[in-house]
Protein backbone atom coordinates (compact mmCIF):
# COMPACT_ATOMS: atom_id res chain seq x y z
CA UNK A 1 0.00 0.00 0.00
CA UNK A 2 1.40 3.38 -1.05
CA UNK A 3 0.48 6.65 0.60
CA UNK A 4 0.26 9.51 -1.90
CA UNK A 5 -0.60 13.16 -1.25
CA UNK A 6 -3.54 14.20 -3.45
CA UNK A 7 -4.06 17.92 -4.15
CA UNK A 8 -7.26 18.27 -6.23
CA UNK A 9 -6.62 21.98 -6.91
CA UNK A 10 -9.42 24.21 -8.24
CA UNK A 11 -11.30 24.90 -11.48
CA UNK A 12 -11.50 21.56 -13.35
CA UNK A 13 -8.98 20.10 -10.86
CA UNK A 14 -11.42 18.27 -8.54
CA UNK A 15 -13.28 16.72 -11.52
CA UNK A 16 -10.19 15.40 -13.28
CA UNK A 17 -8.69 14.28 -9.94
CA UNK A 18 -11.81 12.20 -9.19
CA UNK A 19 -11.64 10.60 -12.65
CA UNK A 20 -7.92 9.90 -12.18
CA UNK A 21 -8.26 8.22 -8.76
CA UNK A 22 -11.07 6.00 -10.08
CA UNK A 23 -8.96 4.86 -13.06
CA UNK A 24 -5.86 4.30 -10.88
CA UNK A 25 -7.82 2.26 -8.33
CA UNK A 26 -9.41 0.18 -11.11
CA UNK A 27 -5.92 -0.78 -12.32
CA UNK A 28 -5.49 -2.69 -9.05
CA UNK A 29 -2.69 -0.72 -7.40
CA UNK A 30 -3.27 -0.09 -3.71
CA UNK A 31 -2.96 3.60 -2.87
CA UNK A 32 -4.14 5.49 0.19
CA UNK A 33 -4.74 9.11 -0.88
CA UNK A 34 -3.92 11.76 1.71
CA UNK A 35 -6.08 14.62 0.43
CA UNK A 36 -5.14 18.24 1.14
CA UNK A 37 -5.70 21.37 -0.90
CA UNK A 38 -3.94 24.60 -1.82
CA UNK A 39 -4.74 27.82 -3.68
CA UNK A 40 -7.55 30.35 -3.45
CA UNK A 41 -10.00 27.85 -1.90
CA UNK A 42 -7.91 27.52 1.29
CA UNK A 43 -6.85 31.19 1.58
CA UNK A 44 -9.55 32.17 4.03
CA UNK A 45 -9.02 29.23 6.39
CA UNK A 46 -5.19 29.23 6.44
CA UNK A 47 -4.35 32.81 5.38
CA UNK A 48 -1.95 31.46 2.75
CA UNK A 49 -2.50 29.66 -0.58
CA UNK A 50 0.11 27.05 0.34
CA UNK A 51 -0.35 25.98 3.98
CA UNK A 52 2.60 24.37 5.78
CA UNK A 53 0.73 21.08 6.28
CA UNK A 54 0.55 20.63 2.48
CA UNK A 55 4.33 20.82 2.17
CA UNK A 56 4.68 18.60 5.27
CA UNK A 57 2.51 15.80 3.86
CA UNK A 58 4.47 15.78 0.58
CA UNK A 59 7.72 15.63 2.57
CA UNK A 60 6.31 12.73 4.60
CA UNK A 61 4.84 10.73 1.67
CA UNK A 62 7.58 11.81 -0.76
CA UNK A 63 5.13 11.66 -3.62
CA UNK A 64 2.11 13.73 -4.65
CA UNK A 65 -0.27 14.19 -7.54
CA UNK A 66 -2.05 17.47 -8.06
CA UNK A 67 -4.74 19.10 -10.12
CA UNK A 68 -4.26 22.63 -11.50
CA UNK A 69 -4.35 25.69 -9.25
CA UNK A 70 -5.48 29.11 -10.47
CA UNK A 71 -2.89 31.90 -10.23
CA UNK A 72 -4.12 35.50 -10.16
CA UNK A 73 -2.84 37.36 -13.24
CA UNK A 74 -0.71 40.50 -12.77
CA UNK A 75 -1.49 40.75 -9.04
CA UNK A 76 -2.21 38.67 -5.92
CA UNK A 77 -0.30 35.69 -4.51
CA UNK A 78 2.71 34.04 -6.14
CA UNK A 79 1.94 30.85 -8.11
CA UNK A 80 1.46 27.91 -5.74
CA UNK A 81 2.83 25.65 -8.46
CA UNK A 82 6.08 27.60 -8.75
CA UNK A 83 6.42 27.85 -4.94
CA UNK A 84 5.94 24.08 -4.54
CA UNK A 85 8.63 23.38 -7.15
CA UNK A 86 11.07 25.75 -5.45
CA UNK A 87 10.30 24.67 -1.84
CA UNK A 88 10.73 20.96 -2.65
CA UNK A 89 13.60 21.58 -5.08
CA UNK A 90 11.74 19.72 -7.84
CA UNK A 91 14.30 20.69 -10.43
CA UNK A 92 13.05 18.56 -13.33
CA UNK A 93 9.82 19.14 -15.18
CA UNK A 94 9.36 16.15 -17.47
CA UNK A 95 6.68 16.35 -20.16
CA UNK A 96 6.25 13.55 -22.71
CA UNK A 97 4.28 14.61 -25.79
CA UNK A 98 3.06 11.64 -27.80
CA UNK A 99 0.41 11.15 -30.50
CA UNK A 100 -2.43 8.75 -29.75
CA UNK A 101 -4.00 6.95 -32.70
CA UNK A 102 -7.63 8.02 -32.88
CA UNK A 103 -7.07 11.61 -31.70
CA UNK A 104 -7.45 13.96 -34.66
CA UNK A 105 -4.48 16.25 -35.19
CA UNK A 106 -2.30 17.46 -38.08
CA UNK A 107 0.49 15.08 -37.11
CA UNK A 108 0.53 11.34 -36.55
CA UNK A 109 3.89 10.30 -35.18
CA UNK A 110 4.92 12.88 -32.63
CA UNK A 111 7.01 11.43 -29.81
CA UNK A 112 8.82 14.25 -28.03
CA UNK A 113 9.95 14.69 -24.47
CA UNK A 114 10.43 18.15 -22.99
CA UNK A 115 12.83 18.35 -20.04
CA UNK A 116 12.26 21.79 -18.52
CA UNK A 117 14.47 23.30 -15.83
CA UNK A 118 12.07 24.01 -13.00
CA UNK A 119 13.68 26.24 -10.38
CA UNK A 120 15.21 29.35 -11.93
CA UNK A 121 15.28 31.55 -15.09
CA UNK A 122 12.63 34.32 -15.16
CA UNK A 123 10.50 32.05 -12.98
CA UNK A 124 12.68 32.88 -9.97
CA UNK A 125 10.13 35.71 -9.58
CA UNK A 126 12.68 38.44 -8.80
CA UNK A 127 10.96 41.57 -10.06
CA UNK A 128 10.88 45.18 -9.01
CA UNK A 129 9.50 48.49 -10.17
CA UNK A 130 11.75 51.11 -11.76
CA UNK A 131 10.08 54.17 -10.29
CA UNK A 132 6.91 54.97 -12.18
CA UNK A 133 8.28 54.33 -15.63
CA UNK A 134 8.97 50.61 -15.80
CA UNK A 135 9.64 47.30 -14.13
CA UNK A 136 12.47 44.79 -14.20
CA UNK A 137 12.52 41.00 -13.95
CA UNK A 138 15.78 39.18 -13.33
CA UNK A 139 16.68 36.08 -15.32
CA UNK A 140 18.84 33.73 -13.29
CA UNK A 141 20.76 30.86 -14.86
CA UNK A 142 23.29 29.05 -12.69
CA UNK A 143 25.94 26.49 -13.53
CA UNK A 144 24.74 24.03 -10.87
CA UNK A 145 21.08 24.11 -11.94
CA UNK A 146 22.04 23.84 -15.62
CA UNK A 147 24.37 20.90 -14.91
CA UNK A 148 21.83 18.87 -13.00
CA UNK A 149 19.02 19.35 -15.54
CA UNK A 150 21.26 18.51 -18.50
CA UNK A 151 22.63 15.50 -16.64
CA UNK A 152 19.07 14.30 -15.95
CA UNK A 153 18.19 14.76 -19.65
CA UNK A 154 21.30 12.84 -20.81
CA UNK A 155 20.48 9.95 -18.47
CA UNK A 156 16.87 10.02 -19.63
CA UNK A 157 18.04 9.62 -23.25
CA UNK A 158 20.22 6.64 -22.32
CA UNK A 159 17.79 4.92 -19.93
CA UNK A 160 14.89 5.23 -22.36
CA UNK A 161 16.95 4.37 -25.45
CA UNK A 162 16.08 7.64 -27.16
CA UNK A 163 18.03 8.87 -30.20
CA UNK A 164 19.01 12.44 -29.51
CA UNK A 165 19.06 15.31 -27.02
CA UNK A 166 18.48 18.87 -28.31
CA UNK A 167 19.11 21.94 -26.14
CA UNK A 168 16.86 24.96 -26.74
CA UNK A 169 18.23 28.43 -25.93
CA UNK A 170 18.63 32.02 -27.06
CA UNK A 171 22.38 32.27 -26.55
CA UNK A 172 22.82 34.49 -29.60
CA UNK A 173 21.10 37.33 -27.71
CA UNK A 174 21.41 36.40 -24.01
CA UNK A 175 25.08 35.59 -24.26
CA UNK A 176 25.73 35.36 -20.52
CA UNK A 177 22.65 33.56 -19.21
CA UNK A 178 21.64 31.30 -22.11
CA UNK A 179 25.30 31.25 -23.14
CA UNK A 180 26.12 29.63 -19.78
CA UNK A 181 23.28 27.13 -20.21
CA UNK A 182 24.60 26.20 -23.67
CA UNK A 183 28.22 25.86 -22.50
CA UNK A 184 27.13 23.59 -19.66
CA UNK A 185 24.94 21.61 -22.07
CA UNK A 186 27.86 20.95 -24.43
CA UNK A 187 30.23 20.05 -21.61
CA UNK A 188 27.85 17.67 -19.80
CA UNK A 189 26.47 16.03 -22.97
CA UNK A 190 29.96 15.34 -24.30
CA UNK A 191 30.61 13.17 -21.23
CA UNK A 192 27.62 10.95 -22.01
CA UNK A 193 27.53 8.54 -24.92
CA UNK A 194 24.61 10.23 -26.73
CA UNK A 195 23.84 12.25 -29.87
CA UNK A 196 23.22 15.91 -29.13
CA UNK A 197 22.71 19.25 -30.83
CA UNK A 198 21.13 22.61 -30.02
CA UNK A 199 18.59 25.01 -31.47
CA UNK A 200 17.62 28.64 -30.94
CA UNK A 201 14.18 28.89 -29.33
CA UNK A 202 12.44 30.82 -32.15
CA UNK A 203 13.70 28.30 -34.72
CA UNK A 204 12.61 25.51 -32.36
CA UNK A 205 9.06 26.90 -32.32
CA UNK A 206 8.89 26.95 -36.12
CA UNK A 207 10.56 23.57 -36.62
CA UNK A 208 8.29 21.91 -34.10
CA UNK A 209 5.27 23.10 -36.06
CA UNK A 210 6.77 22.11 -39.44
CA UNK A 211 8.41 18.79 -38.55
CA UNK A 212 7.73 17.66 -34.99
CA UNK A 213 8.60 14.07 -35.92
CA UNK A 214 12.26 15.12 -36.26
CA UNK A 215 12.64 15.93 -32.56
CA UNK A 216 13.22 13.56 -29.69
CA UNK A 217 14.26 14.69 -26.18
CA UNK A 218 14.65 18.45 -25.69
CA UNK A 219 16.17 20.20 -22.66
CA UNK A 220 15.73 23.90 -21.92
CA UNK A 221 15.50 26.66 -19.33
CA UNK A 222 12.23 27.21 -17.48
CA UNK A 223 10.33 29.77 -19.59
CA UNK A 224 11.06 28.18 -22.99
CA UNK A 225 9.95 24.86 -21.48
CA UNK A 226 6.68 26.38 -20.38
CA UNK A 227 5.91 27.81 -23.81
CA UNK A 228 7.10 24.88 -25.93
CA UNK A 229 5.16 22.41 -23.75
CA UNK A 230 1.89 24.09 -24.70
CA UNK A 231 3.02 24.22 -28.33
CA UNK A 232 3.76 20.51 -28.06
CA UNK A 233 0.31 19.86 -26.60
CA UNK A 234 -1.16 21.58 -29.65
CA UNK A 235 0.66 19.12 -31.93
CA UNK A 236 -1.09 16.08 -30.50
CA UNK A 237 -4.64 17.20 -29.72
CA UNK A 238 -4.41 19.82 -27.01
CA UNK A 239 -3.82 20.42 -23.33
CA UNK A 240 -6.31 17.79 -22.25
CA UNK A 241 -3.75 15.10 -23.15
CA UNK A 242 -0.30 16.06 -21.90
CA UNK A 243 1.01 14.84 -18.53
CA UNK A 244 3.91 16.04 -16.46
CA UNK A 245 6.17 15.17 -13.55
CA UNK A 246 8.10 17.51 -11.26
CA UNK A 247 10.99 15.47 -9.94
CA UNK A 248 13.68 16.29 -7.38
CA UNK A 249 16.26 14.30 -5.44
CA UNK A 250 13.87 13.52 -2.59
CA UNK A 251 10.30 14.17 -3.80
CA UNK A 252 8.12 14.01 -6.90
CA UNK A 253 4.88 15.84 -7.70
CA UNK A 254 2.91 14.72 -10.75
CA UNK A 255 0.60 17.15 -12.56
CA UNK A 256 -0.91 17.80 -15.98
CA UNK A 257 0.49 20.59 -18.14
CA UNK A 258 -2.91 22.32 -18.35
CA UNK A 259 -4.31 24.92 -15.98
CA UNK A 260 -7.62 25.20 -14.14
CA UNK A 261 -9.68 25.94 -17.32
CA UNK A 262 -12.21 28.15 -15.49
CA UNK A 263 -14.47 28.38 -18.57
CA UNK A 264 -15.46 24.70 -18.28
CA UNK A 265 -15.02 24.16 -14.52
CA UNK A 266 -17.79 22.36 -12.65
CA UNK A 267 -19.50 21.20 -15.87
CA UNK A 268 -18.17 17.64 -16.12
CA UNK A 269 -16.69 18.52 -19.52
CA UNK A 270 -12.94 18.45 -18.91
CA UNK A 271 -10.72 15.79 -20.42
CA UNK A 272 -9.06 13.88 -17.54
CA UNK A 273 -6.47 12.19 -19.82
CA UNK A 274 -3.64 14.55 -18.89
CA UNK A 275 -3.96 13.83 -15.17
CA UNK A 276 -4.55 10.11 -15.81
CA UNK A 277 -1.33 10.05 -17.88
CA UNK A 278 0.42 11.93 -15.06
CA UNK A 279 -0.72 9.09 -12.78
CA UNK A 280 0.75 6.59 -15.27
CA UNK A 281 4.09 8.42 -14.91
CA UNK A 282 3.68 8.25 -11.12
CA UNK A 283 3.04 4.49 -11.21
CA UNK A 284 6.19 3.97 -13.31
CA UNK A 285 8.12 6.11 -10.80
CA UNK A 286 6.78 3.72 -8.13
CA UNK A 287 7.85 0.80 -10.38
CA UNK A 288 4.22 -0.34 -10.70
CA UNK A 289 4.80 -1.04 -14.39
CA UNK A 290 1.98 -3.55 -14.91
CA UNK A 291 -0.76 -1.20 -13.64
CA UNK A 292 0.76 1.73 -15.58
CA UNK A 293 0.77 -0.32 -18.81
CA UNK A 294 -2.84 -1.43 -18.24
CA UNK A 295 -4.04 2.18 -17.94
CA UNK A 296 -2.02 3.37 -20.93
CA UNK A 297 -3.33 0.51 -23.07
CA UNK A 298 -6.93 1.24 -22.02
CA UNK A 299 -6.53 4.94 -22.91
CA UNK A 300 -5.21 3.94 -26.35
CA UNK A 301 -8.19 1.64 -26.90
CA UNK A 302 -10.71 4.31 -25.89
CA UNK A 303 -9.15 6.80 -28.33
CA UNK A 304 -8.96 4.26 -31.14
CA UNK A 305 -12.60 3.29 -30.70
CA UNK A 306 -13.45 7.02 -30.64
CA UNK A 307 -16.95 6.60 -29.20
CA UNK A 308 -16.41 8.27 -25.83
CA UNK A 309 -14.25 11.28 -26.55
CA UNK A 310 -14.55 14.47 -24.52
CA UNK A 311 -15.57 17.82 -26.05
CA UNK A 312 -12.00 19.09 -26.57
CA UNK A 313 -11.36 16.08 -28.86
CA UNK A 314 -14.56 16.56 -30.85
CA UNK A 315 -16.70 14.10 -28.86
CA UNK A 316 -19.59 14.57 -26.48
CA UNK A 317 -18.65 12.34 -23.53
CA UNK A 318 -18.49 13.85 -20.06
CA UNK A 319 -15.44 13.59 -17.79
CA UNK A 320 -17.10 10.77 -15.85
CA UNK A 321 -18.26 8.87 -18.96
CA UNK A 322 -14.74 8.99 -20.37
CA UNK A 323 -13.25 7.72 -17.09
CA UNK A 324 -15.86 4.92 -16.89
CA UNK A 325 -14.95 3.85 -20.44
CA UNK A 326 -11.24 3.71 -19.54
CA UNK A 327 -12.13 1.63 -16.45
CA UNK A 328 -14.20 -0.74 -18.64
CA UNK A 329 -11.19 -1.42 -20.87
CA UNK A 330 -8.91 -1.91 -17.85
CA UNK A 331 -11.29 -4.46 -16.36
CA UNK A 332 -11.56 -6.29 -19.71
CA UNK A 333 -7.78 -6.48 -20.19
P1 LIG B 1 -5.64 26.39 -19.20
O1 LIG B 1 -4.70 25.27 -19.43
O2 LIG B 1 -6.43 26.34 -17.96
O3 LIG B 1 -6.66 26.50 -20.45
C1 LIG B 1 -6.24 26.74 -21.79
C2 LIG B 1 -7.31 26.17 -22.76
O4 LIG B 1 -7.27 24.74 -22.74
C3 LIG B 1 -8.73 26.56 -22.37
O5 LIG B 1 -9.47 26.70 -23.55
C4 LIG B 1 -9.23 25.35 -21.60
O6 LIG B 1 -10.63 25.19 -21.61
C5 LIG B 1 -8.52 24.20 -22.32
N1 LIG B 1 -8.22 23.06 -21.44
C6 LIG B 1 -7.24 23.00 -20.50
N2 LIG B 1 -7.27 21.82 -19.89
C7 LIG B 1 -8.28 21.11 -20.42
C8 LIG B 1 -8.81 19.80 -20.18
N3 LIG B 1 -8.27 18.98 -19.26
N4 LIG B 1 -9.87 19.41 -20.91
C9 LIG B 1 -10.41 20.21 -21.85
N5 LIG B 1 -9.95 21.45 -22.13
C10 LIG B 1 -8.89 21.89 -21.42
O7 LIG B 1 -4.76 27.72 -19.28
P2 LIG B 1 -5.12 29.22 -18.86
O8 LIG B 1 -6.53 29.53 -19.26
O9 LIG B 1 -4.03 30.04 -19.38
O10 LIG B 1 -5.00 29.25 -17.27
C11 LIG B 1 -6.10 29.18 -16.35
C12 LIG B 1 -5.54 29.20 -14.94
O11 LIG B 1 -4.76 28.04 -14.66
C13 LIG B 1 -4.60 30.40 -14.67
O12 LIG B 1 -4.90 30.90 -13.38
C14 LIG B 1 -3.21 29.80 -14.69
O13 LIG B 1 -2.30 30.50 -13.91
C15 LIG B 1 -3.49 28.41 -14.11
N6 LIG B 1 -2.50 27.40 -14.50
C16 LIG B 1 -2.17 26.48 -13.55
C17 LIG B 1 -1.29 25.47 -13.85
C18 LIG B 1 -0.98 24.46 -12.79
O14 LIG B 1 -1.65 24.42 -11.77
N7 LIG B 1 0.00 23.61 -12.98
C19 LIG B 1 -0.67 25.34 -15.18
C20 LIG B 1 -1.13 26.33 -16.13
C21 LIG B 1 -2.00 27.33 -15.78
Q: What does this molecule look like?
A:
The chain has two domains: 1-105 and 237-333, Isopropylmalate Dehydrogenase (3-Layer(aba) Sandwich), CATH 3.40.718; 119-217 and 231-235, no CATH class. It has eleven helices and twelve strands. The protein has helices at residues 13-26, 40-46, 52-61, 80-87, 143-159, 177-190, 201-210, 222-235, 273-285, 289-305, 319-331; strands at residues 2-7, 31-35, 63-66, 92-98, 111-117, 127-130, 134-137, 164-169, 195-200, 217-220, 245-247, 252-255. Strand 1 (2-7), helix 1 (13-26) and strand 2 form a beta-alpha-beta unit. The longest helix is centred in the middle third of the chain and has 17 residues, at 143-159. Helix 5 (143-159) crosses helix 6. It is α/β, with parallel strands linked by helices. The strands form two sheets. It has a ten-stranded mixed beta sheet with strand order 2-1-3-12-11-4-5-10-8-9, sandwiched between helices. Strands 6-7 form a two-stranded antiparallel ribbon. It is 41% helix and 18% strand. Bound molecules: 1,4-dihydronicotinamide adenine dinucleotide. 1,4-dihydronicotinamide adenine dinucleotide (NAI) binds at residues 12, 16, 68-71, 81, 239-240, 255, 258-261, 263-264, 270-271, 274, 312. Residues 12, 16, 68-71, 81, 239-240, 255, 258-261, 263-264, 270-271, 274, 312 line the site of 1,4-dihydronicotinamide adenine dinucleotide.
Furnish the topology, listing elements before pairings.
Layout: E1 2-7, H1 13-26, E2 31-35, H2 40-46, H3 52-61, E3 63-66, H4 80-87, E4 92-98, E5 111-117, E6 127-130, E7 134-137, H5 143-159, E8 164-169, H6 177-190, E9 195-200, H7 201-210, E10 217-220, H8 222-235, E11 245-247, E12 252-255, H9 273-285, H10 289-305, H11 319-331
Parallel strand pairs: 1-2, 1-3, 3-12, 5-10, 8-9, 8-10
Antiparallel strand pairs: 4-5, 4-11, 6-7, 11-12
The site of 1,4-dihydronicotinamide adenine dinucleotide has 20 residues, from loops.
